[in-house]
Amino acid sequence: MFGLMMHRPLLVSSLIEHADRHHGDTEIVSREANGSIHRSSWGATHQRARQLANALQALGVKPGERVGTLGWNHHRHLEAYYAISGMGAICHTINPRLFPDQIAGIVAHAEDVLLLVDPMFLPLLESIASRIGCVRQIIVMGERPGEATSAFPLLEYEALLKTASSRFDWPELDERSAAVLCYTSGTTGKPKGVLYSHRSTLLHAWAVALPDSLSFSACDVALPVVPLFHANAWGFPYAAALTGAKLVLPGAQLDGASLYALMESERVTLTAGVPTVWNQLMQYLQSEGRKLHYLKRLGVGGAACPKTIIGYFEDVQQITVLPGWGMTETSPVAALTRPKARQSGLKGQERRDWLARSGRALFGVDLEVVDEQGQSVAHDGVTFGHLQVKGHWVCSGYYREEGDPLENGWFPTGDVAVMDADGFMQITDRAKDMIKSGGEWISSIELEQVAASHPAVLEAAVIGMPHPHWGERPCLFAVLRSGEEATPEAVLRYLEQRVAKWWLPDRIEFVEALPHTATGKLNKAALRSERGL
User: Across-strand partners of 279?
Assistant: First the structure.
């Protein structure tokens, strides 16, 4: 017997319809390439998304075809999010920070029939034009430069919308239909496509909006520093529509001064991004003696958050820091460090130590830590193993790739982690980055965290170096803060007071900068390559 309840498919288009109907006058603020501010609303965004859907349909885009986007966080990119998925096509967000060869490879692999791009990326596309013959046309999301590429037929976004009707009935798709395609950053091999469904995307948005997650509400002003091309901006474009929050899109200007000015002028209450961005903002605030007056919650993901960042924003700026964990394959948010009753009273160093964890599972996903035989390890906060995940917005396979990545129904993340009795998980390393010295494991992430807490150290990376007796020994590479001085011996003495003796690096080297991936993570593969490892 079935229940006697209405059934409506969970569709991306239902989010923008809701935002228009119930929060139509709530602002969408977008910083343009020239620095000017564009003001719109959820109602206008819905209207323009319908116009774009009509225009794409007139250009011959069919349901199931891939339409790529190559752009920063701005109102046109947001409109494309809803238009492409809503009409039944697949929105393929492309990371412009990838190498041109990788971009050419994923456009060809996705078989994008059309691209929506920011003007600044036209020369990039010109350089790979011969390798992306699947692309029929390019729509330029902004003013087309005079020297624009001639390799493709070019259309101007605004001119296209002027000729399109704003009347469009979103089709009632199967909620399992593909909505969005994102490719992994390719740090462990070639980028792989993760194909999100309408259902998974909407459920993820609900989870992100929950009180024990990022806690979106209609009273919030949300600014996703994380790019729209980075795993759907961690659900911000969808969760904001779901709750009717004001959305502020920062464009390409993500330096500390620019973010501070935008956060203050728009009274941003909620934001999220990778640690490198918050490190830059922290340095700006410290150097200028600035205060964030409206920001209440700061999400951190993509890499382990240094305790220095946690301490500064929590203790000095009085902002709640929300470290989380996820990956492209998990849509991406799967865990948030939100307290249960027993953690709610933690303060000071005890709270900072707790916040260094990676979080507990949101409803809709489950986490487990297993040994080499696939058996669950003790949830004691000490015993580590391989992290696995499953759930409503976890991928079951890669786009156009053969083989089943799952292990007994679980997705193997490639992370090594521990879990405590309260269900809080902490990533101790990537499996490939763990250092085995004399038969014992050393966590490169934990050693980096301690090194980065040194007052003179801005950023640190630890990799394993071959050793004739111990097998591997840790080597620490550090970037010093501007104007600060330190010696390897001084950093070593600092570490001696904070980590086990056998964890101490055999070598400490100061460098001007460390390599990062296209999504802002430390690129240890590049670091090893630079060192001939």
Answer: none
3-state secondary structure at position 359: strand
Instruction: For 266-325, write each residue's pLDDT tens digit.
Output: 999 999 998 889 999 999 999 999 999 999 999 999 878 888 899 999 999 999 999 999
Distances (CA, A) of 225 to 228, 268, 270: 9, 12, 10
Q: Are 488 and 508 in contact (CB under 8 A)?
A: yes
Burial state string for 75-88 with b = 16 or more CB within 10 A and e = fewer than 16: bbbbbbbbbbbbbb
pLDDT one-digit tens code per residue, 411-421: 999 899 999 99
* CA distances to 122, 125, 412, 458 from 130, in Å: 14, 9, 37, 42
Residues 113-136 have a mean pLDDT of 95
Q: What is the DSSP letter of 316?
A: I
- Which residue from 191, 196, 70, 184 is spatially nearest to 122, judged by alpha carbons? 70
What amino acid positions are annotated as catalytic residues? 184, 329, 436, 441
DSSP structure class, residue 482: T
Which domains are present in the chain?
Answer: 15-26+40-201 (3.40.50.12780), 434-533 (3.30.300.30)
Cα–Cα distance, 428 to 421 (Å, whole number): 17
pLDDT above 70: percentage of residues in the chain = 98
How far CA 502 is from CA of 426, 428, 442, 443, in Å, comes to 22, 17, 9, 12
Between strands 137-140 and 114-117, the pairing is: parallel
pLDDT of residue 147: 55
**Distance of CA 422 to CAs 261, 386, 415, 426, Å?**
39, 18, 20, 12
Continuous H helices in 64-138: 75-86, 100-110, 122-127
Q: Are 405 and 411 in contact (CB under 8 A)?
A: yes
Report for 37-46, 302-311, 493-502: range of highest mean pLDDT? 37-46
Provide mean pLDDT across the span 68-91. 98
